[in-house]
Structure prediction request, 203 residues.
Amino acid sequence: MNPVLQFADQWNKILGYQTPHHHYEMLKFLFGVLESNNRKGLLMAFRHSGKSTVVGIFAACVLYLHPETRILVLSAHTALASRMVAHIKNILENHPFCTDLIPKSKKEWSADKITINRPIGIREPSVVCQGIHGNITGMRADLIICDDVEVPNTCNTPQKREALRERLRELDFILSPHGTIIYIGTPHTTDTIYRTENTEQGE
Prediction:
């Protein structure tokens, strides 16, 4: 079986669930973006489809397969981004495939950033979160996950939408040369930011 799907199946087995078919499709899409030349993707799904759950599994699996990866999670608010980091952390701590990734000394194992066992010489945390308008100056990431950055409070006026687009353009300066940006969300306006992003799309 595909190692990504095997990772998801094993996690859901621990929770007492079977992996839904649409979660398989989401994971295939996300890893397809990660391995593509475009390196930008957009996943839109209906509410309560479990897209944030799948994205957490995806991020944990990326670290399992590529421990050197630096992941930045951005959401409309820091609290939302922290929830994603907590989800990823929970998977890493409890998934049998990830036992060797958990450091003995958890110096960076908090609500807003975690660092797993990985090759030496990497300064940034393995996973760090931030609100979309938080301080990201000087950060570097190999994978940026924009999870629900467009919400009513960030897009209910033309000025807010333009500020959001400008902020997202700054991510190109944070992303490593071969890095990937993935947008996860639901449009909240006809002038949605997702309409203008040059991305592979999965719905």
In short: The first helix runs from residue 3 to 15. The chain is about 35% helix and 20% strand. The longest strand covers residues 175-185. The mean pLDDT is 87.
